[in-house]
Amino acid sequence: MARNTEIKARVADFDALAHRVAGLSTAGPTEIAQDDTFFACPNGRLKLRDFGDGRGELIFYQRADQTGPNTSFYAITPTASPDTLREVLTLAHGQTGRVVKQRTLYLVGRTRVHLDRVAGLGTFMELEVVLREGEPVEAGEQEAQALMQQLGITPAQLLDRAYVDMVQDQALKDTRP
User: Would the pTM count as exceeding 0.85?
Assistant: First the structure.
């Protein structure tokens, strides 16, 4: 499976961060609408990403829920029928959550920088340092740490949870009296 080293951070000043990322980027910005549906999966996470234009991706990944940088193992399969696939996976496995976001993608060398506006949650940034086959995890961690420093991301901003977990937590808070 492919691997990357990643971090997720809460962002207070989205526009200022976008300006800093743009100054470092080698490609982007690319605007991407994403509607992610998560399904029950006992040994990782399984999500269907719908881009809203008839394209989608089925993504399986394994990652520890801890503040990063941490390593993620993943496999991606494209689909031309995300609506039908969502229906089949829901029947087979059941949905566990849904995350809708507007993502702005930049590339800084081999690192994907995602600036995300997540419905119901707020603004965030993800860094994904794509690791080469056989490359030590430490190399990706060092690269992520250096880029965090350049972008002014502090350890206090780092998150240890996936967006879907935060959406589920928010839904529980909203239903409590």
Answer: yes
